[in-house]
What we know:
Two copies of one chain form a homodimer.
Chain A: E1 10-13, H1 15-19, H2 29-41, E2 46-51, H3 64-70, E3 78-82, H4 86-94, E4 99-105, H5 108-115, H6 119-135, E5 139-145, E6 149-150, E7 154-155, H7 158-170, E8 175-179, H8 187-197, E9 206-209, H9 217-226, E10 231-234, H10 254-263, H11 272-286, H12 293-307
Parallel strand pairs in A: 1-2, 1-10, 2-3, 3-4, 4-5, 5-8, 8-9, 9-10
Antiparallel strand pairs in A: 6-7
Helix pairs in contact in A: 2-3, 2-11, 7-8, 8-9
Amino acid sequence: MFExxxxxxxxxxxxxxxxxxxxxxxxxxxxxxxxxxxxxxSGLKHIEITSFVSPKWIPQLAxxxxxxxxxxxxxxxxxxxxxxxxxxxxGACAAGLKQINLFLSASESHSKKNINKxxxxxxxxxxxxxxxxxxxxxxxxxxxxxxxxCPYEGPVKPEQVVMVVEGLLQxxxxxxxLGDTIGAANPRQVKEVLDRLSGVVxxxxxxxxxxxxxxxxxxxxxxxxxxxxxxxxxxxxxxxGCPYAPGASGNLATEDLVYMLEGMGIKTGVNLxxxxxxxxxxxxxxxxxxxxxYLQAALATRxxxxxx
Amino acid sequence: MFExxxxxxxxxxxxxxxxxxxxxxxxxxxxxxxxxxxxxxSGLKHIEITSFVSPKWIPQLAxxxxxxxxxxxxxxxxxxxxxxxxxxxxGACAAGLKQINLFLSASESHSKKNINKxxxxxxxxxxxxxxxxxxxxxxxxxxxxxxxxCPYEGPVKPEQVVMVVEGLLQxxxxxxxLGDTIGAANPRQVKEVLDRLSGVVxxxxxxxxxxxxxxxxxxxxxxxxxxxxxxxxxxxxxxxGCPYAPGASGNLATEDLVYMLEGMGIKTGVNLxxxxxxxxxxxxxxxxxxxxxYLQAALATRxxxxxx
Lengths: 308, 308
C-alpha cells in the first residue's frame, strides 16, 4: 500500500452546481459569482459553475448564463456546466464554456426514475450532444450515476458499468466520472470495479465522485488512488449530493479531500485556508452550517482564536 | 491492496465513557445502563462502560460503580473502565471489572497539560497500577494519546511512540490503543507509524482509535487494516472525543465503521439496525443529534418510512 502514490491529484469542484441545485431558496447571481471566484482563489482549477437544465426542473440554476458571463477568473481555471440535451448544449455554448458535462445512470431503474429513459436511450440521446460538442472542439466529461449501488436495485453489477463506459468511450467522451450516488460504496468494492474497468478505459480518463452519506468517502478515495485514479470530484463544505436530511451529508467535502491528500504528500494546488474562506462565504450566503468535517473544525478554531 | 483482508475485526465501543464524559448535562444512571444494554444487544462484545477518574474532574461519570452493578449483559460481553491511578483501580475492582483501561500521552506537552506529568512520570505511575492489576489477573488495555499529532507540538515522531509502546509492553499491558486524539492523521502516516511498530509489538496487541474531526477516520482504518491491525475503537453515533464545536465530530462513529467493514466482507458481529436503535436511544437521552454519518442517514430513512 502507498508504494506508488501519485505526486498530484486533480480536484474537480462541483459545489456551485451540484451543491446549489439542491438549495431550497434562490441564491442571488452575484453571490454565486462571488462564491465561484472564492473557489478559484483557493487554487481550484476545475469548477462546474452551473447547469443548463430547463429552469422548469431546476429553477435554482436558471441564471447559468448570467453567472458564466459575470465571472472573472484566472485564465487557467477550467469552467464547465452540466448539460442534459442539445438545448442545454446551446446554453453552454452561449456561455462560452469550453467543457460540457453530460450525465446518465448505470442502473436501469435509476435512469427511468431520473430522466424517464432506459440506459440505452440515454446513451443514444447523448450521442447527438457529444457529436455536436466534438465538432465544436469542446471537452466532454460524463457523470455516470449509481455505479456502485442503485437506490432501487441495490448493488450494481460491474458488467453494467463496463457497458456504459464502453458506450461513452465510443462516442468520444474525454473524461468519465464514476458516481457513488447514494454514498453506499466501500473501498473493496471500489477496487473491484476499478480492476474491472482498468482493461476497458485508460485510468487517466476516469474520475471518482464519492458521497460521504455513511462516512466512507475518503476511504473510497484511498482505494481509488491505490487503483490508479488521479481525478476526484468534491464539493465545498460537502454541499449538495442529495443529502437525506438536514445535517446529513451528501457530497464529499473538498476541504476533507484536500486535507487528506496534502497530508499524504500529494499535491492538489489548493490552499486550505482560502478554501475555508470560501466555505465561510457559502455558509453566510446560504444562512446555514455546511456538513464538511474539516470546515467545521477549522471554523470552530477560528472562532476560538477570535474569542480568546 | 485488499489481498489479505482479515475475516473478522474487533470493534471496541468507547461511547458510554469517552462519549458521556464530554456531555455538559448529567445523564441518569438508569439511562446509562439502558444505553449500554442497547449497545450489547447490537452484538458489541467490548464496551468501555465508565471511568473511575475522580468525580472532581469528571462528575459526569461519578456513578460508575452503580452503572456497573446495575448492568445486565450477556456473559460474553467484556466490560471495562478507564482507570487513572490506584484509587481508580480500586473502584474498578469494586465494580467487578475484569479489564481496566489505562491512558497516557505520546507527546510531552499533551502529557503535561492533560495530567501534569512528563511521559516518563506517567509510565512510572502506571507501573504500580499495572502490577496490581496483573497480580489480580485483570486484563490491561492502555490508550496512547497524540500518537500521530499533538495539539501543542504538531506531528509526533514515531520514535516517541515506539518508546512509549516498549514501556507499556515491559509492564505487561495486554492491548495498546493508538489514538489520533485531534483527528489529524492521514492514511500514509498511519501506515508509516505501524510499519515502525511492527517490529516492536505483535500486531494483534494493537488497536487503533481514530477521530473523524477532518473526515479521515475510515480512510485511516483502511490503512490500519492493510497494515495488519484488527481492533478498532469507535463510539456510538460519533459521541465524544473532544469535538471542537457543536455539530463538529470527534470519535469515529461505530455505525460508520461497522457499515464499511461489513460491506467489505469483514465480520464484526454487530447488527447495524440494532446499533441504529441504540443511536436513536442516545439521541433521546441526550436531547440532541449525534454527528455519525450512517446514523443520520438511517434515522432520516426511518423517518421517511414512517411519514410515507
